[in-house]
Design goal:
Elements: H1 2-31, H2 35-56, H3 64-94, E1 98-107, E2 116-119, E3 132-135, E4 138-146, E5 151-155, E6 165-171, E7 174-184, E8 189-196, E9 206-209, E10 221-230, E11 236-243, E12 252-258
Antiparallel strand pairs: 1-2, 1-12, 2-5, 3-4, 3-12, 4-5, 6-7, 6-9, 7-8, 8-11, 9-10, 10-11
Helix pairs in contact: 1-2, 1-3, 2-3
Amino acid sequence: MYKAKKKKKNKVFFIVGPILVFLLLIGSFYLGYHPRLLKDISMMIEKCVMYPFTALTEDKGITQSDSYLIQKNANESLEKDIQELKDLVELNKSLTEYTPINATVLSRNKSYWFNTLTIDKGTSSGIQKDMAVITKNGLIGKISKASDNSSEIKLITSDDIHFKVSIAIKISDVDTYAIMNGFDSKKRLIKADGIDKTVEVPRGALVVTSGLGEMFPSGITIGTVEEVESDKYNLSKTIYIKTYQNFNDIHYVTVLKVKS
């Protein structure tokens, strides 16, 4: 009887503990950066990770190795979400010129997976059309539609040929400008063109937003140059950019609102 109750108690803590930590971190994500709160959360994470490990080893038939594997498998997805939220909280601290609006991805259309996604924040939170949207890995798109409590993000991987972004390629401390204008679905790379044929663009060169056109802030990371090719007339060059962001795996985003 006692053992049954103990197992039930361990199971409840095993499930509820990490969820409580996750909810607390969600709160800090939306309310803003608070060092003391994050420190408390970190301590709770450690306790929640360690408790099931030690508690389960007290039950007969469960070794420390088994307990560790159970804990690792059960919390793997949750720990990934927690780390993603912590990264965005750190990112928010560096956005001094903008009011970051943190949001959670609600849905994506499977038929247009790389075109758009929907988030849980809208005009009631200050979001407006054309605002830049980022993650800790850099630019992912812009707001294309906004209602009261949700918004649609047009991703930079969209097949919309009218979605263009002015970019700067960092080559030996000199900026070379180009226009990002599409996604090559076969290469799985972002495409940009308009580069003079005489410019030598090295593979691995950093690509960021230029700030020209005033739609996107300057200096937001996009990725690195993966491939370079000349057009059929040899008048200009096209580059293909490998992003730091995995566009199959986006859960939390930050919308950039210019401070008034």
